[in-house]
UniProtKB/TrEMBL annotation, chains A, B:
Family: Belongs to the nucleoside phosphorylase PpnP family.
Descriptive protein name: Pyrimidine/purine nucleoside phosphorylase
Tagged with keyword Glycosyltransferase: yes
SUPFAM superfamilies linked: RmlC-like cupins
Catalytic reaction list: guanosine + phosphate = alpha-D-ribose 1-phosphate + guanine; a purine D-ribonucleoside + phosphate = a purine nucleobase + alpha-D-ribose 1-phosphate; adenosine + phosphate = alpha-D-ribose 1-phosphate + adenine; cytidine + phosphate = cytosine + alpha-D-ribose 1-phosphate
Top-level class of the enzyme under EC nomenclature: transferase
Matching Gene3D superfamilies: Jelly Rolls
CC terms in the record's Gene Ontology section: cytosol
UniProt keyword list: Glycosyltransferase, Transferase
Keyword field contains Magnesium: no
Annotated source species: Caenimonas aquaedulcis
Length: 105, 105
C-alpha cells in the first residue's frame, strides 16, 4: 500500500532544496509533534548523509539505493521502505522521479 | 508577514514536478476542503498557464513576474502576493529559489 497523503499535519512553506534541486522536500509535523518530510528526487545519482536514523518510504516512482558498507544496489518502489542508520550515509540513483516520505528517528 | 506553515492540512506525498524540476510543489488540502499547493521555483525563466485564477504568495526568496498582456516585470518577495486571472498566463524569472504558496480560485 502506498501512502498517498499525510493527514492533520503542519507543512512548512519553505522547501528544502538539496543538490541544486535534484532533491526537494517540504517538512511536515504531525499533531503529536513527530517530524517527517515529503520530497522527490529527480534523475541523478546522489549520496545522502544521515544524522538521525531514517526510514525512506516510496510514495511513487522507483530508486536504487546502496547503504554505506554494502556493495549491493537494491530497488525500492511504491509502498516499500528502507532504513538507514544514524550517522551513516547511502547512495541513491534515480532514473525517473522517486517520491518519498522520510521518517526520522 | 511571511506564512511559515500551513496547519491542520492534508499533504499529498507525490510531488508535482514541472519544467524538468525547475518547479516542484506538493498539493495541500485544508480541513474545509480548500486546495492549495506549496512549492519552490529554482533559478530559471518560465511561463505558467493558469486554469483557475491563482494567488501566488511568497514564503521565501524573490521572483520577478510579468502578467500576460503586461510589459512590466514586478518583483515579489517574502509575504507579498500577486494574482493571476484564470485561463491566462504569467512569466516568472527567479535568480535564487522562490518559495511560494499557491492559492486557487
Amino acid at each position: 500500500m502506498t501512502t498517498e497523503s499525510l493527514d492533520n499535519v503542519r507543512v512548512a512553506t519553505r522547501a528544502n532544496v538539496y543538490f541544486d534541486g535534484k532533491c526537494v522536500s517540504h517538512s511536515v509535523t504531525l499533531a503529536d509533534g513527530t517530524r517527517k518530510s515529503v520530497g522527490v528526487i529527480l534523475p541523478s545519482e546522489l549520496t545522502f548523509k544521515t544524522g538521525a536514523p531514517e526510514i525512506m518510504e516510496c510514495a511513487g516512482g522507483f530508486c536504487e539505493y546502496r547503504l554505506a558498507g554494502s556493495a549491493d544496489w537494491v530497488t525500492s518502489g511504491p509502498g516499500q521502505k528502507f532504513g538507514v542508520p544514524g550517522d551513516s550515509s547511502f547512495d541513491i540513483r534515480v532514473r525517473e522521479a522517486y517520491h518519498y516520505i522520510c521518517h526520522f528517528g
